[in-house]
Amino acid sequence: MDYNGEKMSDAEGARTRDQLNKFVKLTHRPPHGETLAGHRTPPARSGHRCVADNTNLYVFGGYNPDYDESGGSENEDYPLFRELWRYHFATGCWQQIQTDGYMPTELASMSAVLHGNNLLVFGGTGIPFGENNGNDVHVCNVKYKRWSLLNCRGKKPNRIYGQAMVIINGFLYVFGGTTGYIYSTDLHRLDLTTREWIHLKPNNPPDDLPEERYRHEIAHDGQRIYILGGGTSWTSYPLDKIHAYNLETNSWEEITTKPHDKIGLYSGILLPGDAIAVYKFETVSSSATDII
């Protein structure tokens, strides 16, 4: 499947496989080394969220404790970044987007997803971390550059951060996260038409649920939601087995992943159509995970 959920041709699929394990550093300069007056790049940060369409990469929020690096006296939200940036793939230029409306103040470890022209942001934490959390859905229309609060009803998730979310067939699914004290294995669903939250209760015994976690990622193929990585303050979860939520049966399944035949020490899972591959590389002294 491609980004839009359409089946790729065999040739396109082969090219996709050839790109696995190949990294390309994107320059922030326009072609031929030209620079545009007034164009800046976003300061270094962590805890931000990135989403993309075919034209732009959007970067929202984040944290940097370095006073000078995060903007000094000009950054009223230090050590957080209450800002939205856009990177245009064709020109290689960054632009800080000036928006109207109320931008959320929970600016670290929120979850974000791009749905058409709408950037949806849920949860996250502010200062002090773990004590100033959110559970609202904020929407920024990136075409008209305006923020709004999505007024919802029903059983909202707790005020959490570090959760992950995805939109499937008009529903927003949110899994996991933490209050700063308690880690979650909850799965919530928001109907984007009626704006009603429900807390899903999968048909599994408690021992068959995914482990509680935060800072994980989510992928889906239209039939299942795959939970990738994450952990707690005392552990991180390996990728040799992952959990998948079956939308049709309302149940969790455990999937054993298979190593990629070209990458050796990496292990991964290829979803139908090679939509996503997850790798874990291990050495004697350390391990690292990458999502390609």
From TrEMBL:
The keyword Transmembrane appears for this protein: yes
Signal peptide: none
Keyword Repeat in annotation: yes
Biological processes per GO annotation: positive regulation of stress-activated MAPK cascade
Keyword entries, A-Z: Kelch repeat, Membrane, Repeat, Transmembrane, Transmembrane helix
Gene3D superfamilies: Kelch-type beta propeller (2.120.10.80)
Transmembrane segments: 160-183
Protein name: Kelch domain-containing protein 10
Taxonomic classification: Eukaryota, Metazoa, Chordata, Craniata, Vertebrata
